[in-house]
Amino acid sequence: MLLRLTSGTSRPAVPVDSRRLHRLPTALRIHYAHAFDQLLSPSPAAQARGLDLLGDPALLARAGEAYAPRRYRALGPLRVGLPDGPADLPRDVRALLAMLLLKHGRTVTHEELRWGLWDPGNEPRNPRSETTRLAKRLAEILGPGVLATAAHGYALHTSADELDLVRCDELVRRADAARLEGALAEAHDLVSGALSLWGDAEPLAGVPGPAARTARTRLLRLRLALHTKRAELDLVLGEYDRAAAELSGLLRAHPHREDFRRLCLIALRRQGRVEEALEVYEEYELSGGRSPALTALGRELREEYAEPVDDAPPWTEYEQRPVEPGAPESTVSAPDELPEGPFPTEDGLWTPLLDDDAEHDTAQARAEADEREERAESRAALREAMRAEGLEPEPELDEDPGPEEEEEPDEPPWIDFDTGFRACARYTLADGPVDRDARAALHGLVTELLADSGADAAAYELVDEPGGPLVLLAPRAEAAPLLRATVEGLPGRLARLAGLRLRIEFWQVEFGLDGNGEQSLGRADADAVGAVLDASAAQAVVVLSDSLYYDEVREEGQYGPAFPPDLFRPLADDTGWYHLVEGGGRPGPAADLR
Hints:
By secondary structure, the protein is an alpha+beta fold.
């Protein structure tokens, strides 16, 4: 292979003429010619010496210094910088190059190329021949040693080149690792570095084909998520001016993003710009927004600004009195305090704060109590008016019976009317203690799988725990999208774990609607799962509890079972079901869900 790449032939004459190695820098040709002579010798000892020469760190360092890397840009219009200048890529060749770059050196099969390059109905008469033609044209443009041809597809060698997609991924993983170590300023700088790689135009601008359209949508979501991440870090670091300035621009460009709006409200509030924050909230309110978190925050802002709540009754005797700052029932944070918890985002990436659901649940409960009180006062006023007219109002049933009418329940109150169910998924490295880079790589892998699943930020919570990332799906949210994304997406992503084995477990819990009484509905036995992974050559195992398997996998929809019936196999002790995933980009048996 090296001979073919350096000389254009795999059968040179021995001794190798260094002048034939015309694809190498002149200063290195004699060294590689000597190494090839040794490797082509019939003597095993000479072959060993040749191998040592090729692996000489000094030679590799000189080769790296002499190599002029290609520069690929996909976070904007697709461009390629070659040693002799920018490449002129035809439109259809750009579509092929984009698919290869998105695979980061892994093979793209002919079938994947067929569905990714052309829309249904627009395919050429012979897709395989057209793909071959495009690949030859791309190889001519990029030069030798770049495009690898296999029987089942193509791959692009970019390990020694610059690719902004890879650089962005590296910076985000380093930011995750810095955040886990508490280095928030460093994490902010790394996220800013990742955002600086993006151009003004949308990613893969001008690249045709279904694969490019899908990737473009995902990359745009990633960019917005990075802006959210940086704004959160600004707020934690106390950079309220910087956060407000950036978020105001983001809101103008993306007024539908509730995470940007909430972060902007908090930034303005921390600056004491409550009136401006109210204007930002009222824009959202007038547009029909009904987010409980934003509604609660808007109520708090109005109370701080000493304005009456819009939905209060018009009579002065029924106006809501402002809550004193420090009153026991107040859920309003002081203007100079950052509320505990993460800011809800549209994309499930990490956040440097803790959970604040309880705070906003309290605010929402308080709002509901205020509404009930206002309705009761309105009914009382109406009854008095009827009596003044000589009319006797009908007897009224109590909307909320007083404490003296309540009976002490035998069980918690939420048991009487409802319980909730939610699915959980834990991603754990199976080979003992790991370093921060491995934890960051795993965190990045999980966030990508969540993005692949298409889940909204409100549909799950991602928690970093010592045992590994834990995904808590919202009550009654289906686990099938995340399960499908995990099974389909793992084979191509396991390489970033550097050979570490991975255990993924899905199970269900039942809980009360007040957040108490959580109880697992049965989990797969950990020893049985470990035995399955140890007995195989697979790098990962995906495990389902028995109840979740029958709810999500075996359940038939309108078009039949959601998953192939042979995708999962039962554990030896019948506590769950498992699916093995091999490393190196090779999916395990029955991994194709299409």
